[in-house]
Backbone:
């Protein structure tokens, strides 16, 4: 009986969206209420928690020293990991990262990396030998849809909250001094995900809406309105015209979110 009720409800959602409506009375291009809290993990160098409707994501940032990549000896390192906490959804299982958590981490990472959000050149201590490594850890605490946008926003908020220790580097030794400086940032990208349901483009899908989507596209946009990264998901396709429309939607919604949070 419960599976029948679920199928009926999903059909309702699909039919409503086909007619330009949503069951929660939002417009097709409206976000749910968004709340962001920064600096909530005391022992992290930076942190943020976001509520996007009922979706909840926590991000912590740790900064350590390490070696640079061979092809970028003068730059620090950024790495993003995502964990789908089993308590967040019946679909999440304990154990090593699955393909969903890996995809989530890669999309968040790509938006930050391709927009050059972190000024990695300023994280170099000694070229080719020692740099600062920025670990961005994403924890999904409650899954009610649109984990990509929630995680990307939370990651950006956490990085904006991140502090680096003052230090002195002499004779190959790093000495931590008193005080902190802000993590150097060059850009503040915002990722907007658009899903296609019955040929309609929909912003910020809830979990039930994601279950009836045909395809998904996530677009990272910087302060200048330039598109920095794009990731396609889902089994169906977007027409060239729909991609153009989705791009314009992403640019408009990113500007709207940026204004809302003064970013």
Residues:
């Amino acid at each position: 009986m419960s599976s029948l009720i679920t199928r009926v409800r999903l059909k309702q959602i699909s039919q409503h969206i086909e007619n330009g409506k949503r069951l929660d009375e939002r417009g097709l291009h409206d976000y749910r209420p968004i709340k962001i809290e920064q600096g909530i993990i005391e022992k992290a160098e930076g942190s943020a928690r976001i509520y996007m409707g009922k979706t909840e994501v926590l991000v912590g940032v740790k900064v350590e020293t390490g070696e640079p990549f061979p092809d970028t000896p003068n730059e620090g390192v950024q790495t993003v990991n995502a964990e789908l906490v089993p308590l967040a959804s019946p679909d999440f299982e304990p154990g090593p990262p699955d393909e969903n958590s890996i995809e989530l981490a890669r999309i968040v990472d790509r938006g930050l990396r391709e927009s050059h959000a972190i000024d990695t050149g300023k994280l170099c201590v000694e070229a080719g030998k020692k740099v600062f490594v920025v670990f961005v850890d994403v924890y999904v605490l409650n899954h009610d849809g649109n984990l990509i946008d929630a995680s990307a926003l939370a990651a950006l908020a956490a990085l904006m909250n991140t502090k680096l220790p003052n230090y002195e580097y002499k004779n190959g030794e790093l000495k931590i001094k008193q005080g902190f400086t802000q993590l150097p940032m060059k850009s503040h990208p915002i990722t907007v995900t658009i899903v296609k349901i019955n040929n309609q483009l929909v912003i910020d899908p809830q979990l039930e809406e994601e279950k009836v989507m045909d395809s998904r596209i996530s677009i990272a946009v910087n302060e200048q309105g330039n598109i920095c990264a794009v990731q396609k998901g889902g089994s169906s396709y977007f027409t060239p015209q729909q991609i153009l429309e989705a791009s314009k939607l992403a640019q408009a919604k990113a500007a709207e979110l940026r204004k809302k949070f003064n970013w």
